[in-house]
Amino acid sequence: MHIHYQIDQPVHLDVQMEVRAFTVLLGLSGEGKSILLKAIAGLIPARGSPFGGLAAEQRPIGYLPQGYALFPHLRAWENVAYPLRGSDRRRQAMDLLARVGLGEMAERYPDALSGGQRQRVALARALARRPELLLLDEPTSALDMATRDEILDALISEVHDFGVPVLAVTHDPHLAMLADHMAVLLNGRIAQEGRPQTMFARPVSAGVARLLGFRNCFAGTVEQVDSLGMTVIVAGWPLRAGPREDLRPGMAVTVVIRSEDFVLCDAVDASAENVLCLKLTRLREEGLAWRVRLEGGLSVDMLLARRLCTGRRPTIGETWCVHVAAEHVQVLMEEGGSSRAAGD
Question: pTM of this prediction?
Answer without folding.
Answer: 0.83
